[in-house]
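Continuing from the previous page of notes. For each protein in this section, the sequence appears first, followed by its structure tokens. Read the first protein now.
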Amino acid sequence: MRRPTKRSSQVAEILMGNQAMERALALLAAGEVVAIPTETVYGLAGDATNGQAVARIFETKGRPHFNPLIAHVASMAMAETIAEFDPLSRRLAEAFWPGPLTLVLPHRAGSNIHPLVTAGLDTIALRMPRGFGSDLIAALGRPLAAPSANSSGKISGTTAEAVDADLGGRIKLVVDGGATQVGLESTIVKAEDGELRLLRPGGISAEEIEAVAGTKLLRNNDAGIEAPGMMLSHYAPGAAMRLNVSTLEPGEALLGFGPTRAAGAANAAAFLNLSETGDLREAASNLFSHMQALDRSGARTIAVEPVPYDGLGEAINDRLARAAAPRDS
């Protein structure tokens, strides 16, 4: 795997969103990357039409070039210059944009998106974010490529502090928008041949999408990497992960869910609960920050209590499974 580019003498500037627009625009126009808040997680944003900027995203994250990026837009008019919308995808965009839904669509011929964004695919992943990201794209007048603002394969940042701790020595600006609301990356779906496939579960549940689409959401058939977040090992802390535990082993940290504890929980090296009441939306919001905090405890393994698979639980379990997957040495 490509190693992240380091700028050891540099310390990122951190500005609140209401103070950061001018500085962010200047950096983006110069082909730099900027860490920005979105409703899902923080993104590492660069001008999606600028090859130098897109290359800098990959270099900063240490991200493999075969792993495509999401292009973020500020309007349907901008989206339609980039991709071709079928009726089902358009209906989903109208229902969930702006918001945590990414659509994989045929890439429109003549688009000014740099080829590095699509990683050689004839499709492109598009999302319309809320808040500062949307305002920034509209002011720039061009789409932004913006994967999660973290080193490739590591835990996604949901606060400016987490982003700065990981990438602060490699970038010039982190825009502080507070803790993200959703806490998980966007759901990614693809409409093709009258069917709708889930490529990555995320901040909108499958049930919500099915209610709008009027059709079942098929799960991915392992056809290969078609969108971000599909690599087997991803979202990983430094510690090993052990999932669906009923009994804690000596020396492990414990990531809990709900009111009932695993046996031996009282002896955990560290303990955090995703949601004491078993609320999946709260659990999703806390997932990455709690994983990071337990990783800092020094425990060699983080044990995780079972999380149900319904609703947002599907996305939570997807992230946990990828965090626990075998890793490249």
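Done with the first. The second protein uses the same format. Note its length before scrolling.
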Amino acid sequence: MKPRTNEAPPQALWQDGWYRFARHEPSPNFGPRPAHARTDLIVVHSISLPPGVYGGDAVMALFGNRLDWDAHPYYEGIRGLKVSSHFYVRRDGALWQFVSTRDRAWHAGASRWRGLDNCNDDSVGIELEGLEGGAFEPAQYETLISLCAALAQDCPIRFVAGHEHIAPGRKHDPGAGFDWTVLQRGTGWSAAFFPPATHTPDGA
């Protein structure tokens, strides 16, 4: 008799770019990836709507084009915005998926990393529920680390960066409160995967 294992085989984790252990809520805001795209980049973001307010469904509504623009004064500044991300990690670690990894989500905007422009073309966007520059919860790191490991089985991941790194000056998330050391050590990936500014002093 074969010993039991809690690890699902790789083929069971994904179906057409949808992750088994995420709650699926498909967004209409996506498109095809270019034929030449090699999905080797993970982009980490932070988001909360309104900023600093957690636990509601406003982010899901935004990604689904269902946000009530009149529900809060902050929304007037983003009225009509159509965006999405592949994944969203709540403060309690709950994971949602909006776009298949096979498709191009609208999360990065004007951007450049590893010598390539338009990072939406060949990246997976992960939003963490949080405030730009603020701290994140241990449960979020746990989910993010597990998701990164799973993504490496679905895509040829070789790089991880924050929105602030691929769009410097324009974007500042996830910001100073995000602990890149936790992510690097949790994944076990080499420093070469991460932006130079996030490396630990000993390169571990």
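What the second structure shows: The helical segments are 10-13, 58-63, 138-154, 163-166, 180-187. Residues 138-154 form the longest helix (17 residues). We return to this in next week's lecture.
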